């Protein structure tokens, strides 16, 4: 499903009106009717008396159209203008004039004392849409605060007012919506946190802008869903198992992970590669860990690497890993490996001398960050997937974590394009960016997954999917989606996100 910016939305809007010839008032009519239909189908409780809060732009105009359709369906409505109705211009003035002819009751807001929320069952937020700039001002700000305090269900038209539709950042105040009816296409701001939480349930409604207009204006951000996984990414081609299959048919993952205090990271990672469907998994680990780990994961083959008896990676030679990687269909390196002297140089050797698809996670990402010259590492023939959390992303991109979080989509996209890697920026609504500049926002997962080891599971899963012949985009997008989905089912089964642990995710794959 396409996810757009307000600029892209304006371009599509213009194309539809000017090139295709669908009049703007028709789009607006479709928009208002779509919102009314969503309000009419809401029944917890049914909204008999509806207050419609209006700004002066086209978002407000959509609100007036909504009012007409609700009236026609027998609901009571009251328009609350946040601005002087005489200030409405263009199509909004057209809608205001129609509302006057129809004698739709209205108020012009001047202070909170005039609002009697007891007179209403619900609120429609038509104050600000994609034309919103900066913090809500004046009466609009007061109305947003009052609406939030009313305790009534709020339907936001297009985006909650007070939200940055492009980044998901929220201003103070911002409407806390029950349902957001996104017009035409969903917007980046309601697909990224914290905006997504303020949008409530997002419903996307067709308003007459043809779907292929998005490709025409170059929209390259998507929300993952099962249809996208099959229709766009074609992951289903890898899915059905052949009746003649044998374990060699589904690839062989080399998991290079774990060290003495963090053996569990390797265990989770290797198990995840198996659960993702990899035919074989070899887990390479420092020699000293071999005995304690033997028997913990009977399905995997263990290979101890000479570690000078230390149980960590500082004595392990890059060449050993290169040898093991030969002939493997994918490799994951990083979970629980720790850091050691000259490890960036060591990783560069592995990068240069291995030929299979590579997933780098955790400390491997920090090695890249401290490499200084990562931008000049030679191009690999096989693809690379990096799986940073926001802190690791900040170190990779030379930015503060907060800066990364404010603009996850673009930061991930720029990094992936610039370094020719597939980048998985983890966190709520994980973002996957491809070297070609496409971005996929993941809707699955829950806060219970913010717990040790879930990243190790994701890295292993991704490698397991790569090993079965998936492209990096397929493996990363599907891996992230299934990881979140398994986490959601695990949390539901436990009836608590808080008690979810990483191995629960494995059990629900
Ligand atoms: N996408 C489409 O094809 C369609 C979209 N529709 C709706 O139109 C809005 C966008 O409308 P626009 O007129 O561009 O802007 P807004 O209604 O969002 O509001 C702009 C209006 O508000 C004032 N303003 C801006 N920022 C602030 C602020 N921080 N505080 C106070 N006031 C502010 C500014 O003066 C502007 O005049 C889109 O979201 C859809 O709902 C069409 O109706 C159908 C086609
Ligand atoms: K709105």
TrEMBL record:
Binds 1 potassium ion per subunit. The keyword NADP applies. Residues 230-509 form the YjeF C-terminal domain. Pfam families: Carb_kinase (PF01256), YjeF_N (PF03853). Residues 9-215 form the YjeF N-terminal domain. The keyword Membrane does not apply. GO terms for molecular function: ADP-dependent NAD(P)H-hydrate dehydratase activity; ATP binding; metal ion binding; NAD(P)HX epimerase activity. (6S)-NADPHX binds at residues 58-62, 129-135, 158, 265, 336, 389, 456. Its EC number is 4.2.1.136, 5.1.99.6. Keywords: ATP-binding, Isomerase, Lyase, Metal-binding, Multifunctional enzyme, NAD, NADP, Nucleotide-binding, Potassium. It comes from the Bacteria. AMP binds at residues 426-430, 455. Its cofactor is K(+); Mg(2+). K(+) binds at residues 59, 125, 161. It catalyses: (6R)-NADHX = (6S)-NADHX; (6R)-NADPHX = (6S)-NADPHX; (6S)-NADPHX + ADP = AMP + phosphate + NADPH + H(+); (6S)-NADHX + ADP = AMP + phosphate + NADH + H(+). GO terms for biological process: metabolite repair; nicotinamide nucleotide metabolic process. Bifunctional enzyme that catalyzes the epimerization of the S- and R-forms of NAD(P)HX and the dehydration of the S-form of NAD(P)HX at the expense of ADP, which is converted to AMP. This allows the repair of both epimers of NAD(P)HX, a damaged form of NAD(P)H that is a result of enzymatic or heat-dependent hydration. Belongs to the NnrD/CARKD family. Homotetramer. This is Bifunctional NAD(P)H-hydrate repair enzyme. It comes from Paenibacillus xerothermodurans. The lineage of its organism: Bacteria, Bacillati, Bacillota, Bacilli, Bacillales. The gene is nnrD.
């Amino acid at each position: 499903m396409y996810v757009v910016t307000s600029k892209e939305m304006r371009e599509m809007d213009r194309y539809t009106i000017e090139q295709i010839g669908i009049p703007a008032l028709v789009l607006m009519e479709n928009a208002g009717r779509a919102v009314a239909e969503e309000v009419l189908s809401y029944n917890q409780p049914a909204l008999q008396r509806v207050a419609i809060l209006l700004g002066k732009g086209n978002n407000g105009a959509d609100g007036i159209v909504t009012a007409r359709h609700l009236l026609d369906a027998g609901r009571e409505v009251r328009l609350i203008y946040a601005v002087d109705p005489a200030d409405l211009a263009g199509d909004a003035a057209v809608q205001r004039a129609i509302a006057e002819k129809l004698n739709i009751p209205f108020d012009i807001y001047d202070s909170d004392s005039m609002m009697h929320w007891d007179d209403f069952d619900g609120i429609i937020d038509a104050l600000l849409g994609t034309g919103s700039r900066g913090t809500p001002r004046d009466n609009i700000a007061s109305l947003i605060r009052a609406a939030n305090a009313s305790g009534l269900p709020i339907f936001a038209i297009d985006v909650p007012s007070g939200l940055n539709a492009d980044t998901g950042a929220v201003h103070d105040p911002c409407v806390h919506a029950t349902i957001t009816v996104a017009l035409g296409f969903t917007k980046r701001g309601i697909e990224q946190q914290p905006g997504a939480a303020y949008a409530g349930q997002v419903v996307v409604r067709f308003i007459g802008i043809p779907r292929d207009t998005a490709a025409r204006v170059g929209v390259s951000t998507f929300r993952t869903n099962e249809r996208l996984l099959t229709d766009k990414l074609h992951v289903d081609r890898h899915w059905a198992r052949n009746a003649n299959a044998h374990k060699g048919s589904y690839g062989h993952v080399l998991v290079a992970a774990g060290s003495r205090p963090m053996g569990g990271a390797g265990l989770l990672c290797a198990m995840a590669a198996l659960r993702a469907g990899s035919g074989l998994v070899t887990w390479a680990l420092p020699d000293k860990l071999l005995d304690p780990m033997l028997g913990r994961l009977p399905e995997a083959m263990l290979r101890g690497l000479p570690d000078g008896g230390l149980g960590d990676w500082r004595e392990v030679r890059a060449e050993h890993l290169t040898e093991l990687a030969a002939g493997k269909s994918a490799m994951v390196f990083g979970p629980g490996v720790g850091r050691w002297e000259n490890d960036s140089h060591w990783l560069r050797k592995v990068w240069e001398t291995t030929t299979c698809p590579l997933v780098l996670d955790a400390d491997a990402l920090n090695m890249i960050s401290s490499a200084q010259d990562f931008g000049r590492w030679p191009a690999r023939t096989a693809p690379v997937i990096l799986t940073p959390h926001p802190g690791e992303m900040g170190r990779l991109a030379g930015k503060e974590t907060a800066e990364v979080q404010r603009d996850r989509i673009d930061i991930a996209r720029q990094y992936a394009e610039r370094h020719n890697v597939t980048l998985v920026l983890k966190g709520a609504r994980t973002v996957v960016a491809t070297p070609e500049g496409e971005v996929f926002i993941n809707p699955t997962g829950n806060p219970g997954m913010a717990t040790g080891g879930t990243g190790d599971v994701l890295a292993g899963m991704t490698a397991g999917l790569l090993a079965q012949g998936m492209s990096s985009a397929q493996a990363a997008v599907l891996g992230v989606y299934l990881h979140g989905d398994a986490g959601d089912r695990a949390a539901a089964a436990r009836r608590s996100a808080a008690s979810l642990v990483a191995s629960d995710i494995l059990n629900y794959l």
